Write a sequence for this structure.
């Protein structure tokens, strides 16, 4: 029986996850890590063992970029395809890599040795271009490093034996303030909590005026209070570490260096809302952080800061499980994240109801950003009033910015809220800046006239991405990269986003290929309006932002693409014959259509 | 307070009564008002994916199948702006799949086609995607023509919620989303699908078709040939049941 091969490793994984269907995504992720892909027999076996319809499991596999039901290479190479990677030469590096190994991008090599493809931003924009090899991140790709990697793969060297320097991910902290200065002592926030009591701690969170750091800025104290007051069989704490917004990487550093503080913030929240179970939802791209994070959790358990009877309190039980994502940007949306935590396709739910009342397993759930939990720990120690005194009146505290692109010193910059974009640009050594994209692909694109605007909820709210583009950059290509990102990441649930983002990507490609006319311009604007008004979730609403902003502020970049006065079809008859010409080895005039 | 007195909202100026828990489209249908829709079906839990039923509530667009009716809401439905948006959504659905109405057995009985007539769609407008979606003719009694799938998931919901099975599921993501069936072979014949399933009779378009009864009712004498879809407010697909 073929399925015995799969039963052998799947049984071990299933046992570890207690045959719990809510852990389906974790089970699939581990199965794929072990076997290389999800075999048809494995799907059937998991269906039997988990009492789930096989088709539902196949649907989950089909949803996540990092899962595959088809054989992939022994080495699975994914080039990060954010605009910042491209600006650092990722396209040429991928071409070089494919040529060196005789493989076509998007395919598996004939000998099954490797597969090469692109993936959405891997969160290494400050040290790109980057790639993932068998889910592990490699930074600072150069032609030399690519040649070395190609050689290692040809020699079939296991990834674990590759030079450690390839995997040396840097923190690149450039400016520290209250959060990053590292004064936090493990356990100090919980000690303050026990001294003050849960209700008084919530009052401190209220007093701090802390707002969600994922970008939406909902008052953290209110969220915790709503959740605490919601009736349910159990309450849950979820830390959203699915930072998929292109250009964002602050959570990577927070989890690498300040994980203790983040977990302590989650534990505080658990005490306030009465939760016994927490989850860290870690994006699949940060798989390399898993062992470190597990070690931090284990240490906290051994210090009695996590687990049973925390700090000797009879009624204080709380533990944290780490769930990994598998390549789906939309899971950063909190209701999609919860679906994913439950082992399903990451489709955003209809809201209301919101997670605070109907979250994980339909129970009251707090979902907060990594940075929010880290800030909560600090507030518990130093008090809400102290925290509220920093920043602006509406936006208290500090914000960590992930700065990348055309600047001398990319990395993390922590500022009190209210800092101007111009200040950040000066600090990071940006010169001749043409534009700044704040908050990633879904954010806003600023022209120089707006650089005096502030990073704050009352002006430019952001989860922290700040990508810098100098005068040499083509803002049309920036927008085109983002539009393709949204088309790739659309979950496909609602018509406008599923079809609209792909139509938009095709139209941008049409302009890029020189078939643009004012007609296409009008079409792009019409699509954008529809996406904004009818999409199911924020992804669809935001998918038009990069285009609308760049059209409004960098119109010449588009104008030069509208080379025709009248409508020109996207279909190019002569171009369509390319393949036939290749196959017949012809390139004479008889093998071309005359251009009109 | 009179418990029997229903709250009301206005829909294009018309007063619509509703009971607690009803969504806007449910109340509208009960009052005999047509709101274009495809993925909504009165017998199943609203899904909210096709977005055809988008209305404007207090000035903001929202899917009327999932938005709860609330007292004194001011809802716009049959306006040029909304119908234009719906028309574009329909055109998106037409170019996403492969829809050849003249040769389709469901022509005249198809909600997608009837809604397109209703909204006066004259062309698909966008460039076609021409996806490659092979037909599944393995089942002795039924045929699956995935070319026409609009991903409304009614068959998924019907199989799960009404039939207690799981014959259908959605896979893929984004523009690559597609319908699959619950069998290792990927073929309908290897599932527990049955002609008596609710799921066999729920498809609003022409994906799930009974074999050997094609064109039994001549084109011209079918459901939406007789009257526009707006005159049949909740077209419950009876099919061949």
């Amino acid at each position: 029986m073929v399925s015995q091969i799969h039963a052998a490793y799947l049984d071990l994984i299933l046992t570890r996850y207690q045959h719990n269907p809510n852990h389906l995504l974790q089970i699939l992720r581990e199965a794929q890590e072990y076997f290389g892909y999800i075999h048809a027999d494995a799907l059937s076996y998991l269906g039997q063992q988990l009492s789930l319809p096989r088709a539902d499991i196949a649907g989950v596999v089909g949803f996540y970029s990092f899962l595959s039901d088809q054989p992939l290479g022994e080495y699975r190479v994914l080039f990060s395809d954010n605009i910042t990677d491209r600006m650092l030469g990722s396209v040429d590096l991928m071409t070089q890599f494919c040529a060196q190994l005789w493989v076509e991008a998007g395919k598996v090599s004939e000998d099954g040795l490797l597969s090469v493809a692109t993936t959405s931003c891997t969160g290494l924009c400050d040290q790109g271009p980057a790639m993932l090899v068998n889910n592990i991140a490699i930074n600072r790709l150069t032609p030399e490093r690519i040649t070395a990697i190609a050689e290692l793969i040809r020699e079939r060297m296991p990834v674990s034996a590759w030079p450690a320097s390839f995997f040396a991910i840097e923190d690149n902290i450039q400016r520290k303030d209250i959060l990053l200065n590292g004064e936090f002592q493990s356990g100090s926030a919980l000690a303050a909590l026990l001294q003050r009591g849960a209700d008084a701690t919530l009052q401190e969170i209220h007093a701090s005026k802390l707002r969600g750091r994922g970008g939406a800025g909902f008052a953290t104290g209110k969220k915790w209070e709503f959740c605490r007051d919601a009736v349910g069989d159990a309450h849950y704490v979820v830390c959203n570490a699915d930072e998929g917004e292109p250009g964002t990487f602050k959570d990577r550093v927070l989890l690498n260096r300040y994980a203790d503080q983040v977990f302590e913030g989650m534990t505080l929240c658990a005490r306030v809302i009465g939760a016994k179970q927490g989850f860290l939802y870690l994006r699949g791209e940060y798989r390399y952080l898993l062992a470190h994070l597990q070690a931090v959790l284990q240490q906290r358990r051994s210090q009695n800061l996590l687990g049973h009877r925390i700090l000797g309190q009879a009624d204080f039980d709380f533990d944290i499980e780490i769930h990994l994502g598998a390549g789906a940007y939309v899971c950063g949306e909190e209701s999609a994240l919860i679906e994913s935590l439950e082992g399903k396709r990451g489709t955003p739910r209809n809201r209301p109801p919101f997670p605070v009342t109907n979250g994980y397993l339909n129970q009251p759930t707090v979902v907060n950003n990594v940075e929010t939990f880290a800030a909560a720990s600090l507030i518990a120690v130093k008090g809400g009033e102290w925290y509220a005194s920093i920043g602006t009146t509406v936006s208290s505290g500090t914000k960590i910015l992930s700065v990348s692109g055309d600047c001398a010193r990319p990395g993390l910059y922590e500022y009190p809220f209210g800092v101007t974009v111009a200040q950040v640009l000066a600090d990071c050594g940006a010169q001749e800046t043409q534009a700044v994209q704040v908050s990633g692909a879904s954010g806003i694109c600023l022209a120089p006239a707006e650089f005096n605007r502030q990073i704050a909820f009352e002006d430019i709210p952001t989860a922290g991405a700040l990508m810098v583009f100098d005068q040499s950059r083509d803002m049309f290509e920036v927008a085109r990269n983002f539009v393709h990102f949204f088309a790739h990441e659309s979950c496909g649930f609602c018509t406008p986003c599923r079809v609209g983002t792909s139509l938009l990507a095709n139209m941008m490609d049409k302009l890029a290929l020189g078939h643009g006319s004012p007609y296409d311009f009008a079409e792009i604007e019409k699509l954008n309006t529809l996406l904004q008004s009818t999409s199911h979730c924020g992804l669809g609403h935001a998918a038009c932002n990069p285009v609308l902003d760049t059209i409004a502020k960098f119109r010449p970049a588009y104008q030069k693409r509208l080379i025709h006065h009248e409508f020109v079809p996207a279909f190019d008859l002569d171009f369509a014959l390319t393949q036939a010409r290749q196959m017949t080895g012809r390139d004479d005039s008889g093998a071309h259509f005359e251009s009109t | 307070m009179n418990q029997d007195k229903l709250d009301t909202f206005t829909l294009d100026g018309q007063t619509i009564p509703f009971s607690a828990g009803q969504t806007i489209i449910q109340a509208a249908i009960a009052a005999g008002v047509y709101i274009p829709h495809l993925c909504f079906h009165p017998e199943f839990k609203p899904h909210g994916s096709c977005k055809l039923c988008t209305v404007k509530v207090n000035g903001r667009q929202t899917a009327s199948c999932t938005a709860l009716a609330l007292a004194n809401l001011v809802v716009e439905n049959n306006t040029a702006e909304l119908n234009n948006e719906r028309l574009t959504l329909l055109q998106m659905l037409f170019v996403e799949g492969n829809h050849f109405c003249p040769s389709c057995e469901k022509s005249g009985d198809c909600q997608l086609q009837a809604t397109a007539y209703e909204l006066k769609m004259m062309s698909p407008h966008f460039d076609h995607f021409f996806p490659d979606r092979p037909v599944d003719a393995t089942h002795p009694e039924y045929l699956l023509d995935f070319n026409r799938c609009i991903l409304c998931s009614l068959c998924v919901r019907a199989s799960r919620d009404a039939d207690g099975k799981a014959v259908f599921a959605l896979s893929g993501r984004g523009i690559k989303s597609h319908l699959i069936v619950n069998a290792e072979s990927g073929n309908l014949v290897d599932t527990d699908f049955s002609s008596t399933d609710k799921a066999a009779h729920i498809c609003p378009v022409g994906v799930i078709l009974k074999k050997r009864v094609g064109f039994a009712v001549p084109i011209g004498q079918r459901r939406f040939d007789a009257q526009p879809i707006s005159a049949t407010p909740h077209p419950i697909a009876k099919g061949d049941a």
Q: What stands out?
A: Confidence is low (pLDDT under 50) at residues 235-241 of chain B. The helical segments of chain B are 24-30, 80-96, 111-118, 154-162, 223-226.
